[in-house]
Amino acid sequence: MLANLHYNTQVQTDVSQGLIALDKQAKCHVRTACSQLICVLLFLASTIGIVSVQPLASMSYTAVSMQEVLAAPAEQLFVSLAVGSFCLSWLFWFWDLKYDSLASKYEQLYQQHTELIKVSAPLTELSAHYHHLMSLASHLIITSNVVVLAYAAGIVIYHLQP
Q: What pTM does this model have?
């Protein structure tokens, strides 16, 4: 009887540690998705800044050298912000790819220990927190994708104008 109790306690500890590890990875997933969204929004804002700066906006489709664009500090700032935020958003996207396997790891753990997770209040709370973080990360990724699609649509509409 005592050995069975020790076994159940050990299993609960192992499941708890597994859920805590998944929860930590889900927090990193949220941070990465949020960072990517911030970079995409910064890229959008810097592009609007580039278009709104008078010398760059008046160039339209004429040939301009890079030295002319980078001659003024405002242009330098907006161009470097656009390039930097674009590169960082891709970097965060690549970092975010490693969290694609979190859902399958959780499903495997949940299927193996469904009854234990449902019965134990701390395990249920850890499971709910994990779901909350993954939902938040999904919302951030969807928002980032919508911003990128809206940005691409804006470019297409801008170039289709007479």
A: 0.81
